[in-house]
Amino acid sequence: MKFYRSHILIGIDDSSLQSGVKEIENSLRQELDKNNLSDEVNILETGTLGYFGTGVSITVYPDQITYVNITKEDIPEIVSEHFLKGRPVRRLMLDKEFTSKYDFGYKRRIVLENSGLIDPENIEEYIGTGGYEGWEKALTEMKPNQIVEEVKQSGLRGRGGAGFPTGLKWSFTAPLEVEQKYVVVNADEGEPGTFKDRLIMEGDPHKLLEGVMIASRAVGASKAYIYIRGEYKLCIQRLQHAIKQAYDYGILGKNIFGSDFNLDIYLKIGAGAYVCGEETALIESMEGNRGNPRNKPPFPGVEGAWKAPTVVNNVETLANVPSIIKNGADWYAAFGVEGCTGSKVYTILGDVKHPGLCEVDMGTPLRTIIDGYGGGIKDGKEFKAALVGGAAGVFLPNKMLDVKMDFNSLQEYAAVLGSGAILVMNEDADMVDMLWSVIRFFRHESCGKCSPCANGNEILYRLITDIRNGKGKEEDLEHMIMLSETMKESSFCALGQSLLLPVKSAIENFREDFLARMK
Amino acid sequence: MYEKFIKKYAPTKDNLIYILHEIQDNHPQQYVSEEAVQEVSEYLKVSPAHIYGVLTFYTMFSTKPRGKNIIRLCESPPCFLRGSEQILKKLKESLDVKIGETTKDGLFTLELCACLGVCGNAPVMMINEDVYGDLTEKKVEKIINDIKGRQE
Ligand SMILES: Cc1cc2nc3c(=O)[nH]c(=O)nc-3n(C[C@H](O)[C@H](O)[C@H](O)COP(=O)(O)O)c2cc1C
Ligand code: SF4
Ligand code: FES
């Protein structure tokens, strides 16, 4: 292996591609070449570095200095100052106080431990960081029921929204004696404000694959599918590449590691429908149908894809699994809080200084996430509200910001963790407008299969539109809450059931905004 | 006529969505035509009604001819908060179309869509396969002009 004095990690993701990262990378190479530094300084393409709204960013190791918003014109200065003279270019550095205070991005991470640090297109780098050790252990040292038990012990709960205990879910499918079972990865990620799964797949696709492999072995599935939304082109490309590499290395395919276990992983591409994130709708879509949800029970774990027992898990859920198997359940359970272990990846966005993502322990207060990782409210404005958990989430006011972010603590505030999206709004935001936008979303995404949701959304949309246009009455507010309650009780799937969360919280916590439109 | 796209995939129903993507992406007017539906129906042995059901369910598919460049502007709450309405207004004005319409020169179709998962850069739109974020009215102007320029 060649020895380099410095490594430059350059974050390639959908955001930086928009900012012309490729062109900037090229000029960086040329400039290093011109200064005879190509043998000393290595450029490494990696996934997202976790900074958004910062254009193209690079991190230099071992110095651990991150430059943001770089343009082509900055390259000569960076090369001559930093790499020739050893003087960091201060004006381009990410706010140092900010990074050290919150240890931004590189805190003890489980799911994102490699993202932004390794080349996601090179399986050897993943292996070099201890990747696929969990898989080898699961396959050669553990029996399937031991894997299920270990995951149960770890306390891991589903990260797709509902928080169902993962080990328990697997334990329903594992003992079934049938010819074919499946593992399906839910990578449909349609919850507005959520892009954590995209960044996991872009930044460390092998981590997800390893999780899929371990899950497949645990429940006895010989085929696994990753159902991914059609818009995630870079993820699709990286996963295809990673799957191919895994076959080439004999980590996938027949008689893996000399065992009698066979596994194939396939990609399935979605076509734009939020409801397809619902697990039974996702299965319908995978089979080539309209994505209408199915009756539950039977649950997919018993009767899923092509009627075979099917375990459906979220991307982030499965990305936790390799570390659990490698380091043990106790190691994992030490993170987080009682009843809700491990870490959680959040996307923070809206009116904050640093929109982006972070991975923190379960139970971290919401305020710490917004002020710390999000950098607080931008442009010197005041905080007004946070929509937590996506469109199917709740609007929280300032006085509720000390809530701890885990499934149980949030319940006390009638709130949910949902997909982990945190949309922050400043004093200028109006909750009538925001709720209107949320209801418009659900109205559009309702699949129309059941009338409480199809009609309910129509009526809610009419009511909120009237209020927005100054034609509402105060009793409309109670009417909206009651209607959402009815929808919660009688809708066929969780889509129609979830309007109560945003509707009730917006109206109850920000009533004055609604009344102001009625004067 | 669509054979070469269709036959890339095994004739099983679960490949339907793949095949429809492939057909649409390769059609200069980015849609799935009646003839295409007929051919797929014969190949997969599923009814045209089923295929239409699928085509109309998913927002990425179109059964009507569209422009060369499909603009999909995200209207979900995070992009709405960061000003997607102004961007929509700007797009309608500079293209002189309503939502769902195609410009007279056949260059652009304007559509709305739900969250594209790039909300760290809200407001966001996609044009064909490319994502454009942190949109401002000025940026929109430039993007549209750049694409127009490339066609000439
Ligand atoms: C309307 C709707 C949309 C959903 N979208 C997603 C999604 O995009 N990704 C996801 O993982 N789960 C989504 N879910 C939850 C899934 O139904 C399911 O609970 C989850 O994939 C299970 O995985 P987990 O146990 O690992 O969380 C959605 C649910 C509903 C009702
Ligand atoms: S609740 Fe809504 S999305 Fe779910 S089945 Fe009924 S209509 Fe479809
Ligand atoms: S809300 Fe617009 S991209 Fe997510």
Architecture overview:
- The complex is a heterodimer of chains A (519) and B (152).
- Chain A is an alpha/beta fold and 519 residues long.
- Chain A has four domains: 6-94, Glutaredoxin (3-Layer(aba) Sandwich), CATH 3.40.30.10; 123-334, 3-Layer(aba) Sandwich (Rossmann fold), CATH 3.40.50; 342-426, Ubiquitin-like (UB roll), CATH 3.10.20.600; 431-518, de novo design (two linked rop proteins) (Up-down Bundle).
- In chain A, 42% of the residues lie in helices and 15% in strands.
- Chain A is built from 22 helices and 17 strands.
- Chain A has helices at 14-18, 21-34, 75-84, 96-102, 123-128, 133-140, 144-154, 166-173, 196-203, 205-219, 233-248, 279-286, 315-327, 329-333, 366-373, 407-411, 431-445, 451-468, 474-490, 494-497, 500-509, 511-516; strands at residues 6-11, 41-46, 58-61, 65-67, 182-187, 223-228, 264-269, 310-314, 336-337, 340-341, 343-350, 356-361, 364-365, 383-388, 394-397, 404-405, 421-426.
- In chain A, the strands form five sheets. A five-stranded mixed sheet of chain A has the order 12-11-17-14-15. A four-stranded mixed sheet of chain A has the order 2-1-3-4, covered by helices on one side. In chain A, strands 7-6-5-8 form a four-stranded parallel sheet, sandwiched between helices.
- In chain A, helix 17 runs antiparallel to helix 21 (500-509).
- Chain A is globular, with a radius of gyration of 24 Å.
- Chain A starts with 5 loop residues before the first strand and ends with a helix.
- By secondary structure, chain B is α+β, with helices and mostly antiparallel strands.
- Chain B has two domains: 3-57, no CATH class; 69-150, Glutaredoxin (3-Layer(aba) Sandwich).
- Chain B has helices spanning 3-6, 16-26, 34-44, 48-57, 77-81, 84-95, 137-151; strands at residues 69-74, 108-113, 125-127, 130-132.
- A four-stranded mixed sheet of chain B has the order 2-1-3-4, covered by helices on one side.
- In chain B, strand 3 and strand 4 (130-132) form a beta hairpin.
- In chain B, helix 6 (84-95) packs parallel to helix 7 (137-151).
- The longest helix of chain B has 15 residues, at 137-151.
- Chain B is elongated, with a radius of gyration of 17 Å.
- At the A-B interface, helix 1, strand 11, strand 17 and helix 17 of A face helix 2, helix 4, helix 5 and strand 4 of B.
- The site of iron/sulfur cluster (SF4) has 14 residues of chain A, from helix 18 and helix 20.
- Iron/sulfur cluster binds at residues 275, 293, 446-450, 453-454, 491-493, 495-496 of chain A.
